[in-house]
TrEMBL record:
It comes from Oidiodendron maius (strain Zn). It comes from the Eukaryota. GO terms for molecular function: oxidoreductase activity. This is Ketoreductase (KR) domain-containing protein. Keywords: Oxidoreductase. InterPro entries: NAD(P)-bd_dom_sf, SDR_fam.
Amino acid sequence: MSRFSSRKFLHSQLCLPIPYPTTKFTDKTIIVTGSNTGLGLEAARHFVRLDAARVILAVRSIERGKAAAKSIEESTHRSGVVDVWEMDLDSYASVQTFSDRVNKELDLLHVVVENAGILTYNFNMSEEDERQITVNVVSTMLLALLLLPKLRETAAKINGKTVLTFTGSWMHLLTKFPEHKAENVFKELAKKESARMMDRYQILKLLGLLFSRELADLTRVSEKGHSIIINNVNPGAVITDIVRNPEGLRRIYAPVTQKLFCRPTEEGSRTLVHGAEGAEETHGQYLDDCKVGVPSAFFLSEEGVQTQKKMWKELEAKLERIHPGIMQNI
Ligand SMILES: NC(=O)c1ccc[n+]([C@@H]2O[C@H](COP(=O)([O-])OP(=O)(O)OC[C@H]3O[C@@H](n4cnc5c(N)ncnc54)[C@H](OP(=O)(O)O)[C@@H]3O)[C@@H](O)[C@H]2O)c1
């Protein structure tokens, strides 16, 4: 089923238990973005419980990050494992500073969980795009490409695999993405007058999925398989504060639908941990309920593949402007 099915959605949300993670992350260094709250915080808590050597919370507020670190240390009874590093996806410069620090200070980097994201129905700009596109797509891919060399270097040093996992969403199934026909899609999405904000989050999650497939296709394959496993995880619908300051009727129905249909935050975060385990068969895949899932019909269509190639060229031009030479990291 590659279209949204409410039956499949409800079965998944209400009847399928998500397995509690037990695979150890012993000796591993892990970065989790957007980890001061929500899914990122609970995933980071699992990594610490599962014996990771070092877990870096990449957050835009050091204060909120420190509170999260304290909560993890108290619940896991492990100290000296969690670090809090500043990174704001609203700013390309902040992403570059963060990746410089990673490259300078970390000898090894085993797992990157690119989880941070925003959802809003209001149109605002940040850097050169609509803000959600900057945060969830462009800066997220900028960070991915800047961290690829360290992930590849680590894979070579340990003679094993490293993992780059993105938090995607089932909501990509809900968009027909008419903007994909524009000559320059990023510019089209940055036009306030024609912005369809009710569909924006669905579009950016589809873009994230297209870009993770392209990146997975482009990264080198060795005889032993992929040295960096790249996948895109759907956590399901999960109780978090992703919609900050809901307006109008949403204030009333959001908490009700969360109670009725959504997974508890910790349960949702198990899907991120599963993605981070980096099984070979997850490379380039959309993961749903902790297994390889079926993405949207558009994603699977020839039109989806062509859109992926066209949009990758647009992204490439953008990232090269931001950080000249970055494409050589692939
Ligand atoms: N909740 C769901 O049902 C659901 C379903 C599918 C996918 N997802 C995805 O799951 C991921 C995590 O969301 P969540 O539901 O856990 O929401 P959340 O509780 O609001 O967490 C979002 C995290 O992203 C961080 N963030 C936002 N803007 C940022 C920026 N400019 N720079 C750095 N960090 C930033 C937030 O930091 P602050 O606290 O400082 O704002 C927070 O730590 C997102 O990618 C979301 O799209 C969520």
